[in-house]
Amino acid sequence: MRSALTTALAVLARSTPRASALLPSIRFSSSASTTTPAPAAVARPYVIGLTAGNQFPVYPSTKAAGSSKFTVVKKIEGNKKAFAQDLAREAGFPAEDVKLNPVTGHVQIKGFHVDKVKQWLSTTMGKSAAAA
């Protein structure tokens, strides 16, 4: 059996308006933004996935005890051939130095160009992964 105090508190709680009814509601319009929108990236037929550390998957590599040096771009999804052509044309590499490995799907660039490729990817893809 309920005590008189418990019953009085229950009645009081039901008759008291909620805090949301007493306080004004604050709403923000998403259309009235004061920030400058980022420049729209060009739609491309490929996407470069990021590594677990939120970096672009661009790595230096060597073969034959360092006599053969090249840069490898991994995690290319979509049209890999178009990526290789765009990279050669827009980043300023000779077309014969940029090759697509048909087995792994990685793009290889003759020479060590990790920083240049990462810079090009960050401007091209519209995302800025932290510079390594």
TrEMBL record:
Q: Which InterPro entries match?
A: Ribosomal_mL49
Q: Which Gene3D superfamilies match?
A: SUI1-like domain
Cited Pfam families: Img2
Q: Which GO terms describe its cellular component?
A: mitochondrial large ribosomal subunit
One Gene Ontology molecular-function label: structural constituent of ribosome
Location in or out of the cell = Mitochondrion
User: What are the boundaries of the signal sequence?
Assistant: none
Give the source's domain of life in one word: Eukaryota
Provide the GO biological process annotations.
Answer: translation
Alphabetically ordered keywords of this record: Mitochondrion, Ribonucleoprotein, Ribosomal protein
**Homology family:** Belongs to the mitochondrion-specific ribosomal protein mL49 family.
Output the PANTHER family linked to this UniProt entry. LARGE RIBOSOMAL SUBUNIT PROTEIN ML49, MITOCHONDRIAL 39S RIBOSOMAL PROTEIN L49
Instruction: Spell out the protein name for this chain.
Output: Large ribosomal subunit protein mL49
**To which species is this protein native?**
Colletotrichum shisoi
Give the taxonomic lineage as stored in the record.
Answer: Eukaryota, Fungi, Dikarya, Ascomycota, Pezizomycotina
Quote the gene name from the UniProt entry: Img2
